[in-house]
Amino acid sequence: MSTFQHLHLEIPKCDKPRVVIIGGGFAGIQVAKSLRHEPYQIVLLDRHNYHTFQPLLYQVATAGLEPDSIAGALRQLFENHKDFYFRMARVTGIDLEDKKIKTLVGELGYDMLIIANGSKTNYFGDKKMYDRTFPMKQVPQALDLRSHMLQNFEQTVMSREPEEKDRLTNFVIVGGGPTGVEVAGALGELKKHVLPKDYPDINFDIMKLHLVDGGPRLLAGMSEKSSAKAMQYLQEFGVDVRMNTRLADYDGRDVTLTDGTVIPTKTVIWAAGVTGNIIDGLPKETVERGRILVDEFNQLIGYDDVYAIGDIAMMKTDEMPNGFPMVAPVAMQQAENLGKNLKRKLRGKSYVGFRYKDKGSMATIGRNRAVVDLPKFHFGGFFAWLVWMFVHLMSIVGFRNRLVVLSNWIWGYMTYDRGTRLIIRTFLRNNKYKPGDTL
Ligand SMILES: Cc1cc2nc3c(=O)[nH]c(=O)nc-3n(C[C@H](O)[C@H](O)[C@H](O)COP(=O)(O)OP(=O)(O)OC[C@H]3O[C@@H](n4cnc5c(N)ncnc54)[C@H](O)[C@@H]3O)c2cc1C
Predict the structure, then answer these.
(1) How far apart are CA 64 and CA 405, in angstroms?
(2) What pLDDT, on the 0 to 100 scale, is given for residue 412?
(3) Most C-beta atoms within 10 A of its C-beta, which of 144, 325, 335, 404?
(4) How far is CA 268 from CA 114, 237, 337, 374, 394, in A?
């Protein structure tokens, strides 16, 4: 029996077709915005009441930014939209035959369904790692890591056991993609410039940062030049980077790597990849490698009124036989294209296929270095970091957020200070945030 059975979605009936959007991420908010003036009733459902700017989650986890500067309230984003309804509810099932979605607070019929509920951390089915490591996909998870990290340093000050001190101050990051590299850089920055001021009684030589990746190079999705630069920057921070190495076991106290190394640590950050958030009820043949198979119009194959966009969508083309990368620009561009197509539908016009405009990719390492790959050339260093800052600032949802983030970054740059080292909510392993905790 559901705890929420006394609640109802309470969406009024009207004569306009109802478009239900699952997920207020990059794709969901973009498509909802593009349908603003069209004769549709729009219902947006999200398990959180805010949009998360995931590219900066690592800054929340490493005490660089407050969570509310990277999150935007969904109700506020759509406050003047007519025939728009937001409900904070987790969608638990989809019934394609009866054209309805299921939530813990009841069911809702749709005329058109847009599935935009993104992806989740991929543990490759390893329950032990799910229970013992820190993911980086949602704001509460980033806050868990921040509290845990600061609690570790508070305990280090009071510990007399050298091995325990190691365990508290060693960090292992699994995954050398942008998230792993950015977290490692931010921790390196904390170790060098910030923590020694807060904890003068700790000798920070004992704090060791390890990054492991099963592949041959960091930032595998970027150019070789950027991978090499990222490696150089991390090594300058003293990060022990081990390629072609995986985590073989972790019992909550010691990590064992596939090369046999044993590292005592209470902190393993899992940045090894993501997989689609598949909701129950979709036929087996519509799902491939954890994502929903769609055609070039983001339409679910075999279902006229159902679309999937963003990370959750598996659109295979000659150019991208394994689907498009799970990044924000793909999500936003697919949402824009779908918005245009749904307008064309209203005017009796045919759909236009999705074409991806790849504007490049980037990653930052520490406070003033980054690597940038543009379609025609690659560069790194301080200028790349300025480009990274500008692009991220402009992409954050909400004007207030942009101002807050900019002022934080300027302050941090001038003072070497990162402002938010508060343990507001003590982290306890058994109370680790689980995505299913919300409605
Ligand atoms: C740590 C990190 C760093 C990243 N850095 C970059 C970067 O630098 N550049 C870049 O381009 N991309 C980056 N990405 C990837 C980028 O964030 C995603 O590609 C993008 O968010 C995908 O957009 P989306 O709309 O498909 O999904 P999301 O933005 O994930 O949105 C999905 C939404 O659906 C909601 N939801 C999920 N399940 C349900 C459910 N059952 N019911 C109701 N609501 C649900 C979620 O709460 C969420 O709001 C990063 C991702 C992470 C995790």
Answers:
(1) 9
(2) 81
(3) 335
(4) 35, 19, 39, 32, 32
Q: Is the distance from the beta carbon of residue 177 to the nearest atom of ligand 1 less than 6 Å? A: no
Cα separation of 152 and 144, whole Å?
12
The alpha carbon of 277 and the centre of ligand 1 are apart by a number of angstroms equal to 10
Q: Which CATH number fits domain 18-47+89-121+275-346: 3.30.70.1400, 3.40.20.10, 3.50.50.60, 3.40.1390.10?
A: 3.50.50.60
The per-residue DSSP string of 185-240 comes to HHHHHIIIIIHHHH-TTS-GGG--EEEE-SSSSSSTTS-HHHHHHHHHHHHHTT-E
Q: What is the pLDDT of residues 351-378, one digit of tens each?
A: 999 999 999 999 999 988 999 999 889 9
Q: Please give the distance, rounded to the nearest whole angstrom, from the Cα atom of residue 310 to the centre of ligand 1.
A: 8
Residue 423: closest CA among 68, 65, 146: 146
87: tokens are 């409900």
- Structure confidence at residue 398 (pLDDT): 80
Q: 201 C-alpha to center of ligand 1: Å?
A: 40
DSSP label at residue 12: P
Q: Identify the segments of the chain with pLDDT beneath 70.
A: 1-2, 418-419, 431-439
Give 215's contacts (C-beta < 8 A, 6+ positions apart): 176, 243, 244
Query: What is the per-residue pLDDT for 233?
Result: 96
The 8-class DSSP code of residue 11 comes to P
Task: Report the nearest-CA residue for atom 5 of ligand 1.
Answer: 55
